[in-house]
Specification:
This protein is mainly alpha-helical. It contains six helices and five strands, in the order H-H-E-H-E-H-E-H-E-E-H. The chain has one domain: HAD superfamily/HAD-like (Rossmann fold, 3-Layer(aba) Sandwich). Helices cover 41% and strands 10% of the residues. A three-stranded parallel β-sheet has the order 3-4-5, sandwiched between helices. The chain has a two-stranded parallel sheet with strand order 1-2.
């Protein structure tokens, strides 16, 4: 298909070129979801560490992190660093390990079906916030319409409910 389109380049070079273009766009403007930056700032102010768990390549994820308030993230697990991506639990298990925490002590915020499945399978307190696709309600599943207006108190409340 690439040759028919006149692209006689190795797949790695195509990926690198496309990723470079996306990173350049991210450096100009990240389309943060409503409430995301405010929640990150509140977590940081409360001394609650965050890890970004994404299936994006590390350079792309690092560009997003660079657009966040300084020191918003204590770590990063990227798709090019795991042997099994989402919906496998490995990414979230690695994220919890970076913080030296049991996954059950962690809250995961997810906007995709495979991401939410990964967080749930890892045993985190998983919150689905639908974006491009609907997330199916299920018994015990936590779904929020938005992060706007949500904060650390909401996350602590969920942790207390899960611990009870």
């Amino acid at each position: 298909m690439m040759r028919e389109a006149g692209l006689d380049l190795p797949a790695e070079e195509i990926v690198e070129t496309l990723m470079g273009n996306v990173i350049a766009q991210i450096r100009e403007s990240v389309p943060f979801r409503p409430g995301a930056l405010e929640l990150l700032a509140e977590l940081k102010a409360e001394g609650i560490p965050s890890v970004m768990v994404t299936m994006s390549y590390r350079p792309l994820a690092e560009a997003v992190i660079a657009s966040c308030p300084t020191d918003s993230f204590a770590g990063l697990v990227s798709g090019d660093e795991v042997s099994a991506g989402k919906p496998d639990p490995e990414p979230y298990l690695r994220g919890a390990a970076l913080l030296d925490l049991d996954p059950a002590e962690c809250v995961a915020l997810e906007d995709s079906k495979p991401g939410l499945a990964s967080a749930e399978a890892a045993g985190t307190i998983a919150i689905g916030i639908p974006h491009f696709v609907d997330l199916e309600p299920r018994p015990g599943r936590i779904l929020w319409d938005t992060l706007d207006g949500r904060g650390v108190a909401d996350l602590r409340h969920l942790r207390a409910q899960q611990s009870a």
